[in-house]
Amino acid sequence: MFSTGFSAKEEPGALEIMMARQARHLAIPLSQRSATNPIPASPAILQEAMQHFADHCATCHANDGSGKTAIGKNVYPKAPDLRLADTQSLSDGELFFVIHNGVRFTGMPAWGKGKPEEDQDSWKLVHFIRHLPTITADELEEMKRYNPKTEREREEEAAFKRFLGGEDVAPPAPAHHH
Amino acid sequence: MRRLFGILFFLALVSPGAWAHEGNAHVMGTVTDIAADHVVVQTPDSKTVTIKTTAKTSYRTTKETSSRDALKVGHRVVAEVTKDATGMTASELRFSSVPPKPGSH
User: Which residues in chain B have Cβ-Cβ distances shorter than 8 Å to A15?
Assistant: First the structure.
């Protein structure tokens, strides 16, 4: 330990995972765990939540929910794959609570503002998280339009489109994709 | 509960470390060769770049999802790649068969 130092790149051990999940479970009040989603699912709600996720969540969680992003792979603990059972087996109320209140000692911030019963956006995101295991390639492509981009990344993307359209384009100065 | 969080915080501190650098980037150019596990691209500034492809590499035309079979030598590509110590690996290849516009080289 003293020769290697500490790194956020390591995977948590089994004991740590068990304890962290238990702590998260205990952090969610019983009434919240059993709360049901007050927003009815519909294509319009899913579309709205998809854009919201792409804009606010995908930087860490990736558009497909895999967590395979520069941040998601390197925080400690790593961003979970939201498509898998560890997340999908949580109740709607638990998912809402995590989005609204965040998770202590992780990279997950508390996104909710004001009273939980007024936080409709987080409930809509719960619908989208349920949709992640069956998300399509076309939906993922659409989400790229809503991902946060710097001015340089927008210029880079415009250059790529012109190049694919047959124009001669000088290689753009690379955006910083560390 | 407070003691439990204290234990968790301690455990987070004592995990041993490992260091590596990696990053994502884009490569654009014209396909000059296609093999089972890589494509070779000539960039607009005439550099030759080999990009590894895997089963996870996705393929798109400018408008829709496509397949590896549709990618041909001579196509223009924009590759989204991950760079590591072994080179570049494509996560996505966008391509177009549009010929250079008049006046282009």
Answer: 11
